[in-house]
């Protein structure tokens, strides 16, 4: 859980606790936007951080954009209220691109250019309490760089350290094709989380972690039994989870109903460009709802 | 293994089973097998293969009941199919539809379109009579793939069935988990065909040749109404019986052209990009139309939104409906 303090000397960053001047727009240490810090102070509640992590191009932005959009339309068992206009940027970016059969642009590496979302979420039942959530759209390349050389991106280190829950996106289509890359990347992330937590060897990590098998429309067996799919296709990850992580669950999801490829860029240059022909959302809310129930 | 570990393992297994049951929703109830009439002509009526009877009544000459059976078949076609008048449609050729994009204008002839999508119960009849084993119903190039058209238990049938049977609770829901070839084989077996893309669009947009040249965005008019169709914003979250949403019908009574499930058509889907270069998929794509219960964007569930799906994909949100030539239905 993150918390920040505002004094005459300045405001401490929600993510890395560095003291920043009142004029600061971004944290001088981790580059997190200070606007989100001021908003959480105004709410007088400590927000929970839910991290969405995964390899570059796995679909984190699309997943998070649809998730926030669905929540703001009161889909599923939860309702959500965005706090601050910047919180809507991500879902607007994803929705406007996907509705026009375009994937949103790649998330920049610098944390001050990510989309940060601050939402208040609660279960749609009487007397349910509101939970404040901070969900940044991290760049997969930044995560990879941070794991390769720790302290390259302070924001990532601090976000993962303070996360109350994690949604780890894994490319199921790639895993089903026999590639070990998703397996290794997920293992790296878990090892990294394990190391920054400083847990002892016999102490299992309790942070709820939902493994979201993305692009599952390519391998429908994922939806039949995501656990079985993970056991069979992500065996290294499965074993690591068994030994080190206590609170995990596997989910399948897909956002694109059919994918086609243009053989030229929009400027006419040579490149292969994926085109999401239509959307068919499956399994977007379930991992999030599971994580929130565990918090 | 120690008793403590054994108990822990059992508890984990129990928890897994509970979670799996909860995930799958209601328990699967296999549909009862159909008791078929011994007489082949009566069997055709029982199996709803009206198209075959309508197309070739002379084949049954000499059968004592042919006149009454033929009349029954024609009545059933009258009741379950709707006439789509001649008209014209414009199909945008580019994958990104924009004002002024190249379009193909197509004149459509009058035809009959099934009022509803084919249900699980109807498709069960095709499965029960060995449709998957009858090679005459399948295009020759698909024969090597027939062994892949299995259900959850490895029996021949749609992807979400078990032991060749559909879930009784979903008998009147559209059949899903079938690829284009399975849809086409059923239509051929029943004596019908799949509509092509232009015909489908004509039925949904109702663009009759007139001075007004009116094109409907939805079969019921131009404004989206989530009480008239089952798409994601309707908040249903799954398929519904094929005769639901009577207010969402086209003027001729065809229901659920928008929403519930996408529908396979007989046309290839081969759009081009802004530079005229082809858009390619993993395999040959067939056009699907109308949107489904999980179509998030209302703009993708209209009478004119074009999209496609690889022809062998057996998706959870794609079904089909049959069509029939007017000429065929009038044969005596």
Assembly state here? heterodimer
**Largest interface chains and counts:** A-B, 30 and 38 residues
The CATH topology annotation of one domain in chain B reads as paralog of FGE (formylglycine-generating enzyme)
Q: What's the main sheet of chain A like?
A: 7 strands, mixed
**Beta-strand share of residues of chain B:** 5-15%
Low-pLDDT stretches of chain B: 13-24
For the sheet with most strands of chain B, the description reads:
4 strands, mixed
Q: Count of DSSP helices of chain B? A: 8
Helix content estimate of chain B: 25-40%
Question: What is the arithmetic mean of pLDDT of chain B?
Answer: 89
Structure explained in plain terms:
With 295 residues, chain A is an alpha/beta fold. Chain A has one domain (47-294): P-loop containing nucleotide triphosphate hydrolases (Rossmann fold). Chain A is built from eleven helices and twelve strands. Chain A has helices at 34-43, 60-72, 86-99, 140-148, 154-162, 172-176, 181-197, 221-224, 226-233, 235-244, 285-294; strands at 6-7, 10-12, 19-20, 48-54, 78-82, 116-123, 131-136, 163-171, 209-214, 248-252, 254-264, 270-282. Chain A has a seven-stranded mixed β-sheet, with helices on both faces. In chain A, strands 1-2-3 form a three-stranded antiparallel β-sheet. Chain A has a two-stranded antiparallel sheet with strand order 11-12. Chain A is globular, with a radius of gyration of 19 Å. The termini of chain A are close together. With 332 residues, chain B is of the alpha+beta class. Chain B has a domain at 83-117 and 174-330: Alpha-Beta Complex (paralog of FGE (formylglycine-generating enzyme)). In chain B, 25% of the residues lie in helices and 13% in strands. Chain B contains eight helices and ten strands. Chain B has helices at residues 3-24, 40-46, 50-55, 66-80, 120-128, 180-190, 197-205, 326-330; strands at 81-84, 87-92, 103-108, 111-114, 262-268, 279-280, 285-289, 307-310, 318-319, 323-325. In chain B, the strands form three sheets. Chain B has a four-stranded mixed β-sheet. Chain B is globular and about 60 Å long. The relative contact order of chain B is 0.15. Mean pLDDT of chain B is 89; it is low at 13-24. The interface between A and B is medium-sized, with 30 and 38 residues. β11 (254-264) of chain A pairs antiparallel with β6 of chain B.
């Amino acid at each position: 859980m993150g918390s920040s303090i505002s004094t005459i000397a300045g405001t401490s960053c929600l993510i890395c606790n560095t003291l920043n001047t009142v004029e600061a727009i971004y944290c001088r240490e981790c580059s997190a936007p200070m606007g989100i810090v001021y908003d959480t102070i105004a709410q007088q509640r400590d927000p929970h951080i839910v991290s969405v992590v995964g390899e570059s191009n796995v679909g984190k932005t699309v997943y998070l954009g649809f998730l926030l959009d669905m929540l703001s339309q009161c889909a599923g068992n939860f309702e959500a209220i965005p706090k601050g206009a910047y919180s809507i940027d991500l879902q607007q970016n994803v929705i406007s691109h996907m509705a026009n059969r375009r994937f949103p642009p790649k998330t920049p590496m610098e944390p001050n250019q990510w989309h940060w979302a601050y939402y208040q979420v609660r279960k749609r039942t009487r007397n349910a309490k509101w939970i404040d959530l901070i969900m940044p759209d991290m760049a997969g390349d930044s995560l990879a760089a941070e794991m390769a050389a720790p302290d390259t991106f302070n924001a990532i280190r601090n976000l993962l350290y303070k996360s109350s829950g994690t949604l780890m996106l894994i490319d199921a289509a790639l895993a089903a094709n026999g590639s070990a890359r998703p397996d290794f990347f997920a293992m790296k992330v878990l090892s990294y989380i394990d190391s920054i937590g400083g847990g002892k060897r016999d102490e299992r990590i309790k942070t709820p972690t939902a493994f979201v098998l993305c692009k599952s429309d390519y391998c429908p067996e994922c939806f039949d039994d995501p656990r079985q799919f993970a056991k069979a296709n992500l065996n290294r990850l499965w074993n690591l989870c068994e030994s080190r992580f206590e609170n995990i669950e596997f989910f399948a999801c897909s956002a694109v109903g059919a994918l086609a490829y243009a053989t030229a860029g929009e400027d006419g240059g040579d490149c292969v460009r994926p085109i999401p022909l239509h959307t068919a959302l499956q399994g977007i809310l379930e991992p999030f709802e599971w994580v929130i129930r565990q918090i | 293994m120690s008793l403590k570990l054994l108990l822990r393992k059992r508890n984990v297994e129990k928890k897994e089973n509970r979670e799996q049951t909860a995930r799958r929703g209601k328990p699967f109830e296999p549909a009862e097998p159909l008791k078929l009439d011994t007489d082949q002509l009566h069997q055709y009526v029982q199996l709803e293969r009206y198209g075959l009877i309508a197309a070739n009544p002379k084949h049954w000459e000499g059968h004592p009941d042919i006149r009454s059976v033929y009349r029954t078949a024609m009545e059933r076609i009258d009741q379950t199919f709707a006439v789509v008048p001649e008209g014209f449609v414009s199909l945008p050729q580019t994958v990104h539809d924009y004002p002024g994009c190249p379009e193909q204008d197509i004149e459509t002839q009058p035809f009959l379109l099934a009022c509803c999508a084919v249900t699980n119960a109807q498709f069960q009849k095709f499965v029960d009579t060995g449709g998957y084993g009858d090679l005459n119903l399948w295009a020759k190039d698909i024969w090597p793939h027939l062994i892949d058209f299995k259900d959850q238990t490895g029996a021949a049938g749609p992807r979400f069935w078990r032991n060749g049977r559909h879930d009784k609770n979903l008998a009147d829901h559209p059949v899903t988990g079938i690829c284009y070839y399975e849809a086409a084989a059923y239509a051929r077996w029943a004596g019908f065909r799949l509509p092509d893309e232009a015909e489908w669009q004509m039925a949904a947009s109702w663009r009759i040749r007139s001075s007004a040249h009116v094109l409907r965005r939805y079969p019921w008019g131009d404004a989206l109404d989530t009480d008239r169709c089952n798409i994601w914003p309707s908040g249903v979250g799954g398929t519904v019986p094929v005769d639901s949403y009577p207010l969402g019908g086209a003027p001729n009574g065809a229901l659920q052209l928008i929403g519930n499930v996408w529908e396979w058509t007989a046309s290839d889907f081969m759009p081009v990009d802004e530079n005229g270069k082809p858009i390619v998929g993993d395999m040959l794509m067939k056009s699907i139309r109308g949107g489904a219960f999980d179509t998030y964007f209302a703009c993708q569930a209209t009478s004119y939104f074009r999209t496609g799906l690889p022809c062998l994909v057996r998706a959870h949100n794609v079904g089909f409906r049959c069509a029939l030539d007017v000429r065929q239905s009038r044969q005596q």
